[in-house]
Design a protein that fits this description.
Elements: E1 7-11, H1 15-26, E2 31-35, E3 38-42, E4 51-56, E5 70-72, H2 78-84, E6 90-99, E7 103-109, E8 115-120
Parallel strand pairs: 1-4, 5-8
Antiparallel strand pairs: 2-3, 3-4, 6-7, 7-8
Helix pairs in contact: 1-2
Length: 122
């Protein structure tokens, strides 16, 4: 097992709003599709790394409780954190150093009400 996590899904109430938010803050293309009655916005993947999707469906409910997914913040997560509030999210933990070896993290609430996090080494 190379990665403990193999896939993640971010629940959305307003699918278009959520896709726009993540495209803007992460600077990524999100490919939209519908599968089994669920709208999905797929994050890019090379097939070798963990990826996920924004999802809207009957059983998907945004929450600030439960598991927190840590997204890759690149070289410096501050670049992404600076875009959160400009795109109607809310930063709840600013860039914070974990340790010199483990890097930094930040936590935010997305437009849908999900608590999410970002991690970077710098």
């Amino acid at each position: 097992m190379e990665n403990l996590i193999s896939w993640f899904e971010i629940p959305a109430i307003d699918f278009s709003r959520a896709v726009s938010f993540y495209k803007a803050v992460l600077g990524l293309d999100v490919k939209e599709a519908e599968m089994f009655g669920t709208r999905m916005g797929f994050f890019p993947t090379d097939g070798k790394n963990v990826s996920g999707a924004i999802v809207q469906g009957e059983d998907y409910k945004p929450s600030t409780d439960g598991v927190i997914a840590y997204l890759n913040g690149g070289k410096d997560l501050q670049t992404i954190l600076d875009k959160i509030e400009k795109n109607n999210g809310k930063v709840i933990v600013p860039k914070t150093q974990i340790s010199s070896e483990m890097g930094y993290f930040g936590i935010f609430i997305d437009t849908e009400g999900n608590k999410m996090a970002i991690h970077s080494i710098g």
